[in-house]
Amino acid sequence: MVVALVLSLSLAFSSAHPNQVICEHLKENECAFAVSSASRRCVLEKTEQDGYQCKTSDVSVDKISNHIETYACLGACGLERKTVGISSDAFLESSSLEKICSPGCSNNCPNIVDLFTNLASGEGTSLSDLCEQSANPHRKAAEISSSEAALGPASSDGDAEGKPHRKMEEVLSPDAAPGPNAGLEMHTLEIQVEAPSPSPSA
């Protein structure tokens, strides 16, 4: 009788345990940056019906499981609760990168730090290097100015009028390859205008 009671209480506790995170069971405002009980990152995806669905990704996480990110960390790291997919776009925005590198985020939100550390590694750099560049904007601006001076006039690729942007590795590296128009000489076209003949006197 006692054994049966203990067993029933154990089953009731395990079924109602709040830390069993299953991505497909999470709501829209719980999915992004969550980690399942199997240590897989949850990802929010848009459906064909213009809705959202939480799914389990193939991205594994070390030493973190059963985790739904807190509003405190999302605010400290400058992230949105309804973020779709997993992307490194935050690295391209200086304000977003500053938030991720801030002490409030980097010292208190290991789940987010782990995510962006791996994203930076996938881009061929490190989060610490990106944070150092973010903390020294004057040095970064000097590197970009020096690079532009070495390349000469900017090419038509990557301007701000709807054309493709430069890749992140090109923006971060001062050794970016010159554009297709770099080094071309400018030629002045001379046009001779014939002076009008004087009108006959009356």
UniProtKB/TrEMBL annotation:
<keyword id="KW-0732">Signal</keyword>
<feature type="region of interest" description="Disordered">
    <location>
        <begin position="138"/>
        <end position="202"/>
    </location>
</feature>
<dbReference type="InterPro" id="IPR009489">
    <property type="entry name" value="PAR1"/>
</dbReference>
<dbReference type="Pfam" id="PF06521">
    <property type="entry name" value="PAR1"/>
</dbReference>
<feature type="compositionally biased region" description="Basic and acidic residues">
    <location>
        <begin position="160"/>
        <end position="170"/>
    </location>
</feature>
<feature type="signal peptide">
    <location>
        <begin position="1"/>
        <end position="16"/>
    </location>
</feature>
<protein>
    <recommendedName>
        <fullName>PAR1 protein</fullName>
    </recommendedName>
</protein>
